[in-house]
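Notebook entry, structure prediction.
Reason for the run: the old model in the group folder had no record of what sequence produced it. Starting over properly, with the input documented here first.
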Amino acid sequence: MPFPKTWVEELIIEWLHLDGFLVEANLPVGVKKVGGRLEADIVGAKIISGNLLEIRHIESGQLIVGTQGINAIINRKFSPSVCQSVTNYFTQRLSFISTSSNTNYQKFYVLTYWSQPAITAVTKSNLGIMVDLLPDFICKKVLPTIKQWKNNPHHTPQILGKTVQLPDSYWLLKLIDYLDVRKMLICP
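New structure, fully documented this time:
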């Protein structure tokens, strides 16, 4: 598995792992006309109930360009050929026979820096992309996953005192959990 390029990508990888996904960073999904390759930032997949393949394709970064530029970025990052390439990769990797009816392909964009016009443009694009500002992603997706994991009786947690601790390898999730437990994280 290639290394993530940013700490936000690392956070996304840890979040997906904690939620039971097989995760890949910088997955090659095609080549550019002028050379070089196209990559999906972070993708994860898991089989649910034996008959549904759930794929989460997550791009991250800044989005502050004008409406025209945003549509080009979104169309390139989540194009049908990119989504098909990701689906093909995971169906092969998981030995899963995929059809449109048994594959749930979710598209996310986690914004580290943004402008309001950019958010409005993405929201109006009707491409089925869930857009989260980084603080909202942490509060609405990461924290609930941490709490769900800590309350799951089927894992073998490290217990320090009376508190269930995340594994040491999830260092960014541990930081977020630490800030949350000590009421240093502000979530709406």
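Summary: The chain has a mean pLDDT of 86.
The old model has been moved to the deprecated folder.
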